[in-house]
Amino acid sequence: MECEVDPQMTITAVTNAKWWGAPGPLQCGPKSLYPQTGHWDYMYACNDIWANPPETCDAYEGQTGGKAMNDAAYPNAAGRTDVEGCCWWGRGVIQTSGEQVYCFGNPPTYKYY
C-alpha cells in the first residue's frame, strides 16, 4: 500500500536532537515554501549578541548552535534539490543501547554443550 504524493503537503517534525549544533527538525513542503535545500552548518555559532546585527538561534527551542545554509542548492544522492512531495519519511530503526535481548524478531535460542 502506498500513499499518493501530495505536492502541497507541508510537515515539520516534532522531535530533533538537542546537542550543540544539532540540526533542526526535518521539514518538507512545496517549492513555493522551500525552493531549494542547502546543508546544516553544525559549527555555526548562532548565539552571537556582539554581531551587528545580533544573531540568535531560532531553528528550534533550546538551540545553542548550528544554522541551515540554504543560500545555495545542495542536491541529494538522487539529484533533487527540493523537498516537494517528500513529506513521508521513515526514521529507521529505533536507536537502542545496552543489551537488546528481545527487541527484534524472535527471542534468541541458546544451545548448551
List keywords for this structure.
4 strands, single chain, little secondary structure, 113 residues, two-stranded antiparallel sheet, two-stranded antiparallel ribbon, disordered C terminus, 0% helix, elongated
What features would you describe in this structure?
With 113 residues, the protein is largely without helices or strands. The protein is built from no helices and four strands. The protein has strands spanning 11-12, 27-28, 39-41, 67-69. A two-stranded antiparallel ribbon has the order 1-2. It has a two-stranded antiparallel sheet with strand order 3-4. The radius of gyration is 20 Å and the shape is elongated.
- For the largest sheet, list the strands in their spatial order: 1-2
Q: What is the H/E string?
A: EEEE
- The residue fraction in helices comes out at under 10%
Provide the structure class: little secondary structure
Total beta strands: 4
SS summary, helix count: 0
Instruction: Report the span from N to C terminus.
Output: 46 Å
Largest sheet: 2 strands, antiparallel
Gyration radius from CA atoms, angstroms: 20 Å
Strand content: 5-15%
**Low-pLDDT residue spans:** 106-113
- Mean pLDDT level: 80
Shape: elongated
